[in-house]
Amino acid sequence: MKAVIMRKVEAADTDMRLDRWFKRHYPDLGHGRLEKLLRTGQVRVNGGRVKASDRLSTGDEVRVPPLGEVPESKPSGPKPAGPAPLTGKTAEIAESLKKAIIHKDDRVIVVNKPPGLAVQGGSGLSDAHLDAALDGLRFGADERPKLVHRLDKDTSGVLVLARDRAAAAALAKAFKARDAKKTYWALVAGLPKPSRGKINVALAKEGPAGHEKMRAITDPDADDEAKRAVTYYTVVEQAGGRVAWLALRPLTGRTHQLRAHAAFLGTPIVGDGKYGGAEAFLTGGVSRKLHLHARSLDIAHPDGGRLRVEAALPGHMAESFRLLGFDATAGDDVFAELDE
Fold this sequence. Notes:
Order of helices and strands: EHHEEEHEEEEHEEEEEEHHEEHH
Oligomer: single chain
Shape: globular
Number of domains: 3
CATH class of the largest domain: Alpha Beta
Largest sheet: 10 strands, mixed
Distance between the termini: 59 Å
Helix content: 10-25%
Number of strands: 16
CATH architecture of the largest domain: 2-Layer Sandwich
CATH superfamily of the largest domain: Pseudouridine synthase
């Protein structure tokens, strides 16, 4: 009879949903059976009951009960047969990601993620997401690239992939230690006042799983679910008080942080109906897509030194900039004083 396993979560799996963690490490365990194990308390994290949608952190201890005929994945080492060829939509995504690579070395790959592509799977997404296509970005390596952070489905821009477990751990550590300077560009409806500042407003999730929305909490002591969230922002250019181009520097990495903070200012991100309603959509030919782009990243490289990358605007944002007369070369180095 197999014994209960207490398995530590590795850095490469940090912030991963529990059900996806099981899919990665115990791929033959069906979702229905996992849900039953969760309902009966046989699967626990750090000794407590959890849900399939709960996210894991580095060092968390997952209780894995005896799984019968379900094999355990090996924590390290390449599979002898190698990955199966990608087909269908997954193969298409892999090919598009190859064209979107903006940096590649022996340890790290950086892609300019297109808008509309989910980073990981979820309800109704099947295999139409970036994580499912990562075997197509091995480039001969024994290990498939690993996600170390995420972007929302409709957010474009810099996305870093680690090419081995050690690189994943180093990059995850840098993100967790906030040794990663991230700059986002956004178009917002209206003009924030003041035009430059710091948003220090906690956020709490509300709504059902899969449809969560972040709520701004001005008094975090009054809400046990509130988590600290800090964003610096500055207006780079504006058009008649109707629309502004913001550069954003998040110091924390909460779900939908920039979208929720922009809405808190009274200037929702253009195209973000979830947080801005009808006010988030402009007339005059401006696209209704979300105008939020991970423009640049400066992070410690696993081999030493710094990795600095920039991602070009996606097509719909570049066109909106053109329509509004914004000069896309003017938005870099706006947070220079923060980097000193």
